[in-house]
Amino acid sequence: MRWAAFRRLDRDLREHEAYAVLLLVSFIWAGNFWAAKAALAVVGPITLTALRAALASAFLLWYVRLSHPTWPVAAAGDLRVFVILALSGLVGSTTLWYYGLRSTLAVNAAILGAMGPIFVGLLSAAWLRERLSPVNVAGIALSSAGVILTVTRGSVDVLLHLDLHRGDFFILAGQVSWAVYSVYGRQVARRFSPTVVTTGLYLVATAVLLPLALVEHPWTALPRVGFGTVLAVLYAAIVVTISHIWFYWGMQVVSAPVASLTVNLLPFEVLLLSWLFLGEPVSWFHAVGAFVVIAGVGLATRK
Predict the structure, then answer these.
(1) Is the model's pLDDT at 45 over the cut of 80?
(2) How far apart are CA 15 and CA 289, in angstroms?
(3) Cα–Cα distance between 139 and 160 in angstroms, integer?
(4) What is the Cβ-side half-sphere exposure of residue 30, based on CA atoms within 13 angstroms?
(5) How far apart are CA 245 and CA 112, in angstroms?
(6) Mean pLDDT calculated for residue range 57-82
(7) Which residues contact 211 (CB under 8 A, 6 or more apart)?
């Protein structure tokens, strides 16, 4: 009975169901900015990524065990796939994102994070020889202008005096790593289901991150760990992990441009949540920067 229940989760969604799932995913990802901010006030970025990887691995192994009678990965070459995805994804991109989020505003992180498709397009052009049209190049330039506006907080003086948020550059570096993850992942996506890929890379990431987390002396944070910290870590580890599976589930039904709206809505959702729950100041350059970056991404990814 339980096998049949879990196999039903793999059924094709109806189109209206896919829209609802992707909209829910966008709100879950937006909430992750708030949850990460809360957790990073207590634990370090590597520790947070390691906790997320370890907890998510336990959940994913349970899920795969229910949905697959046997573990579907056996070849030694498959391990190399998961190592590359783990290093460019959780170990690289997520850890850099946490470092950046710790020292910049959540809304800055959301706007700069929206540049991800730009880096994917540039890497695809360099690595896969995919052609960039003049419209794509114009979109890259427009998005870059939005990034500059956000990083400089709409002030020339900020640029002249280099009074910049260090975290903004960690966020951008994380997006470069995410581009490697995305482009490489696209090449191997047909070999395994999203659940198996996610489980494999999380297991490898856990093996890498747990020893690395020791450099942050995570035991010293234990006296400051409260109920809110635990909830924030569980949200990032379990809810966000499930949402990634749902995202791929929805992508199988709707077109890529429609699915991209999940990411494009993030800056505006985070802008609202940051103002409501984090008390972060929201300025004109945040709103303008978000619109400019998203418009640029739309042009840069047009085929």
Answers:
(1) yes
(2) 32
(3) 26
(4) 26
(5) 24
(6) 75
(7) none
